[in-house]
Amino acid sequence: MKRIYLDYAATTPAHPEVLAAMQPYFSQRFGNASSMHSFGQEAKAAVERAREQVAALIGARPEEIVFTSGGTESNNFAVHGAVKADSHIITSAIEHHAVLEPCKLYKNVTILPVDKHGLVDPDELRKALTDKTVLVSIMHANNEIGTIEPIEEIGKVLKGKGIVFHTDAVQTVGGIEVDVNKLGVDLLSLSGHKFYGPKGIGALYIRKGTKMKSFLLGGGQERHRRASTENVPGIVGLGVAAELAIKEMEMRNEKLLKLRNKLIEGIKKNIPDVILNGHPEKRLPKNVDVTVKYVEGESMLLNLDMQGIAVSTGSACSSGSLEPSHVMIAIGHSPETAHGSIRFTLGRLTATNDIDRVLDVFPKIVKKLRAMSPLAKGGD
Ligand SMILES: *Cc1c(COP(=O)(O)O)cnc(C)c1O
Asked: Structure pTM?
């Protein structure tokens, strides 16, 4: 049985060119980028080249890129680096845990609600500002429902106010156009493994002049902003992934949009009582997230997995907790319907016949599960 991977929002396979570029930096070119000898200088040159590649992808200057261990560290760095104990922080109810959890350590935090499509209202954000507000952190696109937030508008609201504006762009960088100046952000998180780079590498964009405390203390790497010996192979891989994203983005998205729309239409046509989660237009080209009424997300996931199809759910068990996803609750689902969400995320290697296969298998699974469900009215 051919396995079909439709969980590209969770992680992506490294691009073959990424892998090839990284390889020598594990062996022949193993130098420490801080060493003064030729081995070190070779590694340092590779790191600086990657810094340029990553900067080019987001319209930044190379010196504004700090390499980190990934999206989680970048988000933690952004929050802890920008605020003091008594600072007021504004964030949203649908942020990734890597933003929400560090924010929880502070006393003065406003968590903005979102509408039924998952959108933050820039006007509500404006009303939430106080003279103590130091940091606003709103994600560029949500990882579960794929909604793209009005970052540019929020940037305009915050312009000239001296408030640090952070966006978690882990789901968008390398996927859709991201330009730090157009968006008007001061800090931006990105992660390699979400766009065909390696795992365990990411970056935080820090706009020149933004006051930030260092997060990891130790050596003087990354201009004293992030200590620890550089992950040279990871950084090289991230750079190549960035370059490939610039080159292939348009082509990738043309295909993704077609396949995404085909999957949405097919699900709507073949399964009654489904709701598309997220915004109908302002959504990631890779994302299809639906709530299937009267069925549990993890039952669907496990049944799809038995057919070789890998997806994700905002339901309980899959995430290792008993609570349904905070994103599902924030967009207005009841705890019951929140448990029925299923996420398909498409990518580079997704083919039309993969989608055809899902559209053949998935309605049958739903029908079977509904026939067994005490929640289904009469079954269908
Ligand atoms: C995956 C993800 C993260 C975490 O990134 P890691 O590199 O896996 O630590 C943070 N935010 C969003 C929106 C994500 O999708």
From this structure: 0.97
Task: Map residue 287 onto helix, strand or coil.
Answer: strand
Domain of residue 37: give its range. Answer: 16-245
Q: Is the CB of 96 under 6 A from ligand 1?
A: yes
CA distance 142 to 240: 25
- Give 75 Cα–ligand 1 centroid separation in angstroms: 9
pLDDT at 318 over 60: no
Instruction: Answer positive or negative: Cα dihedral of 146, 148, 154, 159.
Output: positive
Cβ–Cβ under 8 Å, residues 224 and 214: yes
Domain shared by 156 and 104, yes or no:
yes
CA nearest ligand 1 atom 14, residue: 170
Place of tokens 């964030």: 91
Are residues 233 and 308 located together in one domain of the fold? no
Instruction: Tell me: do 210 and 357 sit in the same domain.
Output: no
Do 94 and 212 reside in the same domain of the chain? yes
Q: How distant, in Å, are the alpha carbons of 122, 124, 151 from that of 157?
A: 7, 11, 10
Question: pLDDT tens digits for 73-97?
Answer: 999 999 999 999 999 999 999 999 9
For this structure, is 103 an active site residue?
A: no
